[in-house]
């Protein structure tokens, strides 16, 4: 009899333990995300990418960070310079027109969220907008292209991408379009409180995670301005999960912004700075690039962002003629962790007497701007 009771008790304990383990099984879903800033293709960049037969190949410029873009489940980039059409002259600042080949190479690098809502989106007029959209439509099975629209229906819709069972909506806003105008009011959205509230509330009903691309801020300023902070708070109050900031062409801080109306908090990266670019008019900080990685997690109770990490990168190039900035060549992006003084001494900025171009300076700027809690171990 004793053995019988002992066996029953043992079976009961086993049942409780196994049942408890089953209940404790993690039912959450998780997707990893990476985001970078302004892919801004100046003439020196596309000239460097042009081959002898007249075609273009930008892939070598991304080769050293390609694995970092491809490894996460989702990857975001702001395509700053529009693809206005290969049938018109290619151009740079102030009215960009970028070879359409960049779309293929951006997707090939691993990007599957491409934003177009920025101050250069109307550089080639409404026809350029049409060409831009049509070019990216060739890759719609591989990437979500959003931020510029060819119909009222598209503009009012919530554009989403799904990974690992998590649906992410992407909303895009720009501070302006360099005084260029479209005859279609729906083409691109600028910052407007009522529009943002309407879009976010709709997106929250149709997706698990709400991501905002915010093209804002002052160029070459390492800190956000009051307008950025105002809208960051609005995004937090409305329940946005993450804000990807672009436009200043330099990096700016990351922070969690707490909602004033709930327990929600929003990850805000005020500026990821430039990505591939040929900018020359600012300073060396235009070539210090930002990248953030984070996870989006969906549980039975909620969906949220966690595990945020910042990595700085370098836009490297050389200069054949020390006295001619138009001879810049060999453009290539490196992780700052992998960039050394030997490479730094080859950079074209070493010919600029006003530039403080060395690895330690880039590391110092990173630590000055980015809170240590977000830096990877090599950046500390």
UniProtKB/TrEMBL annotation:
- Identify one Pfam family in the record: PGA_cap
> Boundaries of each Capsule synthesis protein CapA domain copy?
32-279
Classification via InterPro entries: Capsule_synth_CapA, CW_Biosynth-Accessory, Metallo-depent_PP-like
* Protein family (similarity comment): Belongs to the CapA family.
Tell me the protein's name: Putative polyglutamic acid capsule biosynthesis protein
Q: Which organism is it from?
A: Staphylococcus petrasii
């Amino acid at each position: 009899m004793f053995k019988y009771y002992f066996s029953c008790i043992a079976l009961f304990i086993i049942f409780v333990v196994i049942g408890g383990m089953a209940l404790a099984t993690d039912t959450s879903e998780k997707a990893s995300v990476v985001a970078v800033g302004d892919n801004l293709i100046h003439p020196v960049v596309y000239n460097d990418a042009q081959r002898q037969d007249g075609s273009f190949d930008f892939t070598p410029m991304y080769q050293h960070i390609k694995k970092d873009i491809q490894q996460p489940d989702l990857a975001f980039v702001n395509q700053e310079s529009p693809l206005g059409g290969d049938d018109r002259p290619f151009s740079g600042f102030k009215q960009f027109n970028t070879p359409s080949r960049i779309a293929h190479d951006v997707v090939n690098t691993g990007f599957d969220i491409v934003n177009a809502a920025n101050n250069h989106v109307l550089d080639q007029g409404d026809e350029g907008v049409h060409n831009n959209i049509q070019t990216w439509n060739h890759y719609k099975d591989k990437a979500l292209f959003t931020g510029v629209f060819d119909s009222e229906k598209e503009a009012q819709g919530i554009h989403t991408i799904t990974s690992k069972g998590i649906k992410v909506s992407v909303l895009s806003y720009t501070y302006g379009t360099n005084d260029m105008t479209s005859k279609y009011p729906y083409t691109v959205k600028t910052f407007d409180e009522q529009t943002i509230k309407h879009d976010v509330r709709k997106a929250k009903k149709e997706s698990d995670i709400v991501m905002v691309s915010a093209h804002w801020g002052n160029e070459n300023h390492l800190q956000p301005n009051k307008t950025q902070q105002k809208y960051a708070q609005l995004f937090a109050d409305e329940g946005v999960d993450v804000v990807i900031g672009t436009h200043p062409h330099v990096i700016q801080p990351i922070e969690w912004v707490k909602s004033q109306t709930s327990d929600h908090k929003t990850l805000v990266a005020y500026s990821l700075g430039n990505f591939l670019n040929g900018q020359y008019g600012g300073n060396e900080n235009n070539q210090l690039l930002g990248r953030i990685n984070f996870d989006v997690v969906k549980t039975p109770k909620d969906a949220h962002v966690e595990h945020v990490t910042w990595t700085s990168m370098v836009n490297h190039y050389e200069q054949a003629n020390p006295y001619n900035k138009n001879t810049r060549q060999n453009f290539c992006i490196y992780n700052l962790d992998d960039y050394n003084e030997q490479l730094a001494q080859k950079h074209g900025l070493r010919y600029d007497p006003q530039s403080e171009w060395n690895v330690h300076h880039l590391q110092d700027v990173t630590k000055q701007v980015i809170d240590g809690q977000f830096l990877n171990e090599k950046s500390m």
